[in-house]
Specification:
The relative contact order is 0.12. This protein has one domain: Rossmann fold (3-Layer(aba) Sandwich), CATH 3.40.50.150. Helix content is about 40%, strand content about 20%. The strands form 4 sheets. An 8-stranded mixed β-sheet has the order 5-6-4-3-7-8-14-11, with helices on both faces. Helix 2 packs antiparallel against helix 9 and helix 5 crosses helix 7. The radius of gyration is 18 Å and the shape is globular. The chain contains 12 helices and 14 strands. It is α/β, with parallel strands linked by helices. A hairpin with a 2-residue loop joins strand 12 and strand 13. The mean pLDDT is about 90. It starts with a helix and ends with a strand.
């Protein structure tokens, strides 16, 4: 099944053969970034107790490509696409059509314009963007649809599991936010640093950075305008999720996307439990994703849990 998924991914990737990214990098700046990454890499140990098998393997592969100075084509690696980067899928076109119907389309069409960093696969039906960029903006549109709130309204954002940094980049170009925190594994923080730093974002590993990359939580009581976790909170052990419930509880808005099951975990059951815990302080809605059904070999339902503080 893994091999068939790989073949399917490569075939669909090649639907965009007509579009090539124009990648121009400041080589001196890139060398400086790699130096920072490798210095940090020396002190990183993969915390296997906190991760599922899928993400342990992923972190090990990320280590290899950093050591090999091979992040230029980050978004072309099959194992990265599997976890972080959806590209030429039909459901993306349906999401794009929904964005076009929105009263926020003038904003959306600007922020879905894709960057060249990481050599992303352009969406074959809308090459100004990528499937993943459209997908991320579509998630944000769910909040606007149900709670009539705009991306510009969020000034302090906490993202649990930030992928390669795509959502932080989207906020950076359209929202004069004060703070965007990305909580992730130390290894994934490194590729976020590379991607966002190459794009000249104010990103780093300290509070002073506008985009703050972190892998430890020292204060669970800090208030945020928005808590985001797109297929991340639903992919960690249940006992570890409980540590982030205070952060969710201290946020004004919640946006969580999840699949019905992950490995042996029944996510729908867990998020209904979380809904019950939060409903006294939040208006909570669990919405079935009508477009996304996983891949053709492993179909299952996917959902959003969204919330607005009462």
């Amino acid at each position: 099944m893994i091999f068939i998924n790989y073949i399917f991914r490569k075939i669909s990737e090649n639907l965009s053969f007509f579009y090539r990214n124009k990648i121009t990098l400041n080589l001196a700046e890139e060398r400086k970034i790699y130096k920072t990454l490798k210095k940090k890499l020396k002190n990183i140990k993969i915390k296997k107790k906190l991760l599922k098998k899928t993400h342990i393997e992923f972190n090990q592969k990320i280590r290899e490509i950093i050591l090999n100075n091979d992040l230029k084509n980050l978004l072309r690696y099959s194992f990265v696409q599997k976890i972080f980067f959806v590209h030429n899928r039909w459901f993306i076109f349906k999401e794009l059509q929904e964005l076009k119907k929105s009263r926020e389309w003038n904003t959306y069409k600007k922020i879905i314009i894709e960057d060249n960093v990481g050599n992303p696969v352009r969406y074959f039906l809308y090459p100004q963007s990528s499937g993943n960029r459209i997908h991320q903006v579509y998630h944000l549109s769910i909040l606007n649809k149900y709670f009539n709130t705009s991306i510009e309204n969020f000034k302090n954002i906490f993202e649990f599991g930030g992928g390669y940094g795509c959502l932080a980049r989207i906020f950076y170009i359209c929202n004069n936010f004060k703070s965007f925190k990305i909580f992730d594994t130390e290894m994934v923080n490194l590729i976020q640093f590379y991607y966002l730093k190459i794009l000249n974002c104010d990103v780093g590993f300290a509070n002073k950075n506008k985009i703050h990359l972190l892998n430890k939580i020292r204060n669970q009581n800090i208030k945020h305008d928005l808590f985001i976790a797109n297929w991340s909170l639903s992919e960690i052990p249940l006992n570890y999720r409980a540590k982030f419930e205070p952060i969710i509880n201290n946020s004004k808005f919640i946006l969580i996307a999840f699949q019905e099951k992950f490995e042996e975990i029944n996510n729908l059951k867990y998020f209904k439990y979380l809904e019950n815990k939060l409903k006294k302080k939040f208006k909570i809605i669990i919405i079935k994703n009508n477009f996304y059904r996983g891949n053709f070999l492993r179909k299952q339902n996917h959902y959003y849990l969204i919330g607005k503080k009462l």
